[in-house]
């Protein structure tokens, strides 16, 4: 079972990498074919959002 702290740490790292790449949440959402809300939830680690490994790979490639 994953902890809320792990989700927040993971999300914070996603946010850091996105900002480092000079991307906005809406740009990432468009490239992933998802909503800005979903990207935001991934980055905040809030809720029980399931992040697919393919999404993580796509995020890393961005």
Question: Could you walk me through the main structural features you see in this protein, from its secondary elements to its overall organization?
Answer:
There is one protein chain. 11% of the residues are buried. The longest helix is centred in the N-terminal third of the chain and has 17 residues. With 62 residues, the protein is mostly helical. The protein has one domain: lambda repressor-like DNA-binding domains (434 Repressor (Amino-terminal Domain), Orthogonal Bundle). It is 69% helix and 0% strand.
Whole-number mean pLDDT: 88
Domains, number: 1
Oligomer: single chain
Task: Give the second-level CATH assignment, the architecture.
Answer: Orthogonal Bundle
According to DSSP, the number of beta strands is: 0
Number of helices: 4
Q: Output the structural class.
A: mainly alpha
**CATH top level class name:** Mainly Alpha
CATH fold type: 434 Repressor (Amino-terminal Domain)
**What Rg do the Cα atoms give?**
11 Å
Order of helices and strands: HHHH
User: What's the name of the CATH homologous superfamily?
Assistant: lambda repressor-like DNA-binding domains
**Terminal-residue CA separation:** 28 Å
| Helix content bin | 55-70%
* Strand content range: under 5%
Biggest beta sheet attributes: none
Query: Given the C-alpha coordinates, what overall shape results?
Result: globular
